[in-house]
Design a protein that fits this description.
Elements: H1 15-25, H2 28-32, H3 40-59, H4 64-84, H5 89-114, H6 120-127, H7 136-155, H8 158-162
Length: about 170
């Protein structure tokens, strides 16, 4: 159970983990060495990538309920971001629905690639770079970083992941 925050509300269980996921995804190295476009879409793609990697790790722990909590944080974050950008109320739900669908597609693509059923570089080119031409050096950096993160997450106990100690 989480302690109430300064407003008296309880902190959602996946909050610390989601904040750490966003922190990792917003690392300047993704945009510099990895060549991910530093745009709204590029930042979304980086968050979706790191979130997918963490969710795939949680799948192996059979932590479905916790994955739902983290996904709810993602949805709330995307909803808030769209509203801050001035997206009108009638379309926010539809846009968030598309984002959740995109996350689901990425989960499938990265799950398949990390299981060796498809090339990881192709999954990254299609999802992280949205099919745009990408510098092979940047793509290789991103592939290496994904493999590094997966190894790091695999080595962590589930409790550390739940607490956002990535």
């Amino acid at each position: 159970m989480k302690w109430p925050d300064w407003t008296g509300r309880r902190t959602p269980p996946g909050d610390a983990l989601y904040r750490r996921i966003v922190e990792l995804a917003r690392s300047p190295s993704w945009f510099q060495a990895g060549g991910v476009p530093d745009t709204v879409d590029g930042r979304f793609d980086a968050v979706a990538l790191v979130l997918a990697l963490v969710m795939l790790r949680l799948e192996r722990e059979d932590a479905a309920r916790f994955s739902v909590d983290v996904t709810e944080r993602f949805i709330a974050d995307m909803d808030g971001s769209l509203r801050q950008m001035g997206i009108g109320d009638p379309t926010v739900g539809k846009q968030v629905g598309h984002m959740v669908g995109a996350l689901g597609g990425r989960l499938g693509a990265y799950r398949e690639a990390l299981a060796g059923q498809a090339p990881l570089a192709e999954a990254l080119a299609r999802n992280l770079y949205r099919g745009a031409a990408v510098d092979p050096v940047a793509l290789a950096w991103s592939e290496g970083e994904v493999r590094r993160l997966v190894a790091k997450f695999d080595a962590l106990p589930e409790a550390a992941i739940r607490e956002g100690r990535l």
